[in-house]
Amino acid sequence: MKVLRLKYAIPLLLVPVALLRVEAQPPRNGGSASADIGSDQPIRVDVDIVNLYTAVRNKQNGLVNNLEKTDFTLAEDGKAQTIKYFTRETDLPLTIGLLVDVSNSQRNLIEVERHAAASFFQSVLKKKDVAFLVSFGADSDLLQDLTGSPRVLEDGLSRMKLNGGFSGINSGPVPTATHARGTVLYDAVFAASNDVLAREVGRKAIILITDGEDEGSTETEKAAIEAAQKADTIIYGILYVDRQFYGGFGNFGGGYSGETVLKHMADETGGRLFTVDRKNTLDNIFDQIQQEMRTQYAIGYTPTNSVKDGSYRKIDLRTNNKDQKVQVRKGYYAMPNQQ
Fold first, then answer.
1. Left, alpha or beta for 76 (phi > 0: left; psi -120 to 50: alpha)?
2. Is the pLDDT of residue 247 over 70?
3. pTM more than 0.85
4. Topology classification of domain 6-17+92-293
5. Which residues in 240-295 belong to E strands, given as ranges?
6. Other CB atoms closer than 10 Å to residue 274's CB: what's the count?
7. What is the mean pLDDT of residues 230-246?
8. What is the average per-residue pLDDT within 9-22?
9. C-alpha distances out from residue 145 to 31, 123, 128, 154, 197, Å
10. Looking at the predicted structure, is the pLDDT value of residue 255 above 80?
11. What is the mean pLDDT of residues 144-150?
12. DSSP three-state, residue 332
């Protein structure tokens, strides 16, 4: 059993009770709906359905939002599957985890991140949506648990501060004797997925603001991605690099690999990688993510392979138009139902 790696940095009186949101929820893996996902009726979970949330883009990278079920073809491990539920989703509740890098390499960016995130929460959270906030550097800190209040999330953002340096053997909730800890990116994604999002239903996303460099995590990149996949969570990576910290422009030095890591995380979970630069500000990127999350297609199917042995199943979803790109997770884990 994995140990929770998020430190609770929330004042006791400010911890909200997690909201119960059962109406209009899509079925999570291990459940299916007795009504069409596109109906206005609450969905009742009874048997096995795999749920996919996907965005489709054209050659100009614009969102395509007028497709029908017949425009898609679906396969699992190379075998054709029948799409059972289909709708264009704009109003299904969202659960969002915002994970912000506050390590030494982000020292000069934290204030920009704080203000942009506050604006994002104000604009993106609708009725029944909830979000939580995690900062990570030498440790992962849960600054705000699940809440639907932008004001409460803004209070959490006000507690976000630099967490650089290296924690020693007695620092943090999980002692680490052999790893110097500077940016525990993988640990933060793993804990957010495994300890928060895995308990939620419906549409789930992690928005990860970082330069992508991990230093000292006890979890691996593979384990972090696997945790997100098992929690049915999409990762949107925002590459935000203080180029001066890495010695100027170019490749930031020979050892920098953050962009590759973030792109891999996003691709495997059905998200996207964004890069903050002069033409694409953090505010603009938040707007793009919000637009994408509100124009997704929700697709559900019953796998022809009904065995739940914990194995990984590859998903191939595409449209009939070869010029369109389908953005969806690469696969899922066929986990046994929890009793």
1. beta
2. no
3. no
4. Rossmann fold (3.40.50)
5. 273-275
6. 22
7. 89
8. 38
9. 26, 19, 15, 12, 11
10. no
11. 97
12. strand
